[in-house]
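We treat protein structure as text, and this decision shapes the records that our systems exchange. The tokens are whole numbers drawn from a learned vocabulary of local backbone shapes. Below, we set out a record of this kind in full and without editing:
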Amino acid sequence: MVTGAKKDKLYEEAIKEQFSMDRKSVFENALDQFNKAAEILELSEDQKAILRQPQRITEVSLPVRMDDSSIRVFKGYRVQHSKARGPAKGGVRFHHDVSLDEVKALAFWMTFKCAVVGIPMGGGKGGVICDPRDLSEGEMERLSRRYFAELSDMFGPDSDVPAPDVNTNPNVMGWFVDTYSMRKGGWYPGVVTGKPLEIGGSLGRITATAQGVTYCVQNAVNELGIELEGATVAIQGFGNAGSNAAVLLDELGAKVVAISDVEGAFVSDEGIDVTAAVDHVLKHRSLKGFDSHANVTKLDDAMKLLEWDVDILVPAALENQITEENADRVQAKVIAEAANGPCTPEADQILADKGIFMIPDILANAGGVTVSYFEWVQNRMGYYWDLERVKEDLKRYMDAAFESVLV
């Protein structure tokens, strides 16, 4: 485990990196996508001016007592892009590469994602620059509670409703709602979504993003006349969205032949044993060493997974993975963007010219925010749905959104 001065050095390097002039701006990419869409939609200059910039940006310093009794100061952000349709909605990620530019872009995309699936919420996003792998559970809890306490004036069931994202989970959401409720002197489960079931979470929330991706893939292959059973799949990123998408697609008969995470990409022409991969990650916290399984090979360059000869490619990692440098080598027939912004605008054009069927992120990964909306509704009503109803409503929302985007 990295400790002491080395932790602080890594943290400082992360801060410097996010302000590097060489770093490609994710928010600029988001604006490029918006400008193209705005031109097609013939939006007025006033409409474009309003939508191009976030309504509110907050940056906070978060002093946290570490297990060794020292204090480290972390940097955190919350961006509310638009609340025109309802309270801001969007996750909070804990990652060493978090930057204000990234959080602005993610909040921006959330506004349109909520609109695409027709839920009455706007776009928000948050993040803290840290590496959770270097934090104990106690340090994670103190950091989480400090973040929510510092930003409690922004959050509320009618103003801003966070959710899990990269490296945050139901436990973190539980700390969030508890911190907020203590400060407000009541119980407010609707202030966050993605909570544990015991304190107001919704059935189906953990797999919601992957389930939404799967519904979209089913619609896409039907549109193209491809049989999903036996179709080959590559999945970049094996976190919540990627691993659950692998499980769901495998259950439908698709053949997952390539998977990856931060430890590398692993392929098998005979098909990955998805259950074994999930068990491996549960045991080892990553795919490291997964090539010890029979018929599995580790690629010398994990990015080659994006160029694998498959029917369906699911980028489920981070932004800017498919760019103008590698887009021409992508061979998939269908790309389902389970991650936010995995393709740059330049790559989008190249992929379109190649005739690849693209399911954009604001549709493909909207299952998570849709079931988050269901959770918020259940919290407000005090009436909770069974899993069958959650899945039925999610399918109805995703199918309708797919048809509207397809037209």
Remarks:
- The longest strand covers residues 71-82.
- The two ends are 52 Å apart (CA to CA).
- Residues 43 and 49 are 10 Å apart (CA to CA).
